[in-house]
Amino acid sequence: MRNQPLHKIQKLTKLLILSGTINILMFAFLGYWYIKERPPVPVCERKPKFSEIAVRSEAINDRINTLFPLSFDRLIQQLNDKTSLESGYLARDLALGCMICFHDFDPSRVLPENLTQTRQRFFVYTDSQKQKQKIPVFSGLNDHDFDRIIEFVKIEKWPFTSKGLFHKLKIPEYKESNNLKYAFYITPEFMSVELLFKRAGLQSDKEDLLRLLLEGNWEMLASFAAKQRIDQDLSEEERRSFLLRYIEIGSATAAAFFLKTDSKYAVKKLDDEHVVDILRLSRERTPYAARFALEALASPRNDSVWKEATERLYEFVGEKNPGLMGKDYAVSRFLSGQQSPPDPISTGLVKKWRRAYTVTEGDSLWKISRMFKVNVPELKKQNNMDTDILKPGTMILVP
């Protein structure tokens, strides 16, 4: 009886030792499995190095000179040329490089990532204009890889990078191609601009956005998209800044967008130079352009603004600018005049107005309609209004 507690203690000790051993083995196995299965630590990864090989070989230089003027379709035919050049490269390697360099072919859509990233090299070639061109070549491409490329370009109508699609859309013969437009609409660059406008609640038409972008250059769009990938700035300030960059290079579509989205800001906050730019670009007679020109004329700005606003207003009503009549005459004509001669411009976009009226406290549509002898529906239609509520200080165009 005296040994029974001791026996129980020994038995319990053995069980604890066994349990501890099993736990140790289990943790050891889990640790081994984690170390074996986890991905490599990013800081230990070696980044691919893209080396540049200056062209010193006459054979390679002559080959590039031969390939340089060829069309994209002609270069595709050269992908079967296995003539050996130097450093293990074949003529078809240079043909592929020229497709990428001169025609913006996108190899990442058909070749594995390890080929386009880790095996890329560049031949640095100086053309006849003394401009340096980097001709990319890939080491290790086999017959199967080139067969895939040839098959891909036969099936895919637009096998180009975003830059290549953009430049194709700049060519008049391709500009109206719907499938080319659709291919560009799904590029990261176009989607970054579309998101900027959608985030503001603006359901902008893709065609309008495309027209805006094509009035600029690729570098402007690429730099904006690269910045957005990092900043993800979808603020009003970023949208205004984006549009102003296009306005500064003469984009009429950007000016129309700005008036549609930020007309009040344009009148009150923009500097005189930008206001003049928008007035010069707003040649199409729309409600936004008409209202902006009137508000610019009424605003306390410099002479260049009111002169441009006056010029635009005379164009809109189809009258000849009388010239050196001064700002007071223009204000009297467009902000207080009673009648204008018949309008020769029949765009159907803006109904002709007799004057602009600034809403004051206590005004209503009915009161204004009685004042100018027009009916309320005409007033609402003229000003694109879907409500009868008027805000003091706003401008009403009177038909």
Order of helices and strands: HEHHHHEEHHHHHHHHHHHHHEHHE
Query: Main sheet?
Result: 3 strands, mixed
Considering DSSP H and I runs of 4 or more, what fraction of the residues is helical?
Answer: 55-70%
Structural class: mainly alpha
What's the arrangement of strands in the largest beta sheet?
A: 1-2-3
Give the terminus-to-terminus CA distance. 117 Å
Helices, by number, come to 20
**Morphology call:** flat
The beta-strand count equals 5
Strand content: 5-15%
Uncertain regions: pLDDT < 50 for 5+ in a row? 37-49, 337-351
Radius of gyration, in Å, reads 34 Å
Question: Summary?
Answer:
The chain is mainly α and 399 residues long. The chain has helices at residues 4-37, 58-67, 72-77, 91-103, 113-118, 143-155, 162-169, 172-175, 178-185, 188-198, 206-214, 218-231, 236-248, 252-268, 272-281, 287-298, 303-317, 326-336, 365-372, 376-382, and strands at residues 52-54, 120-126, 132-138, 355-358, 395-398. It has a domain at 52-159.
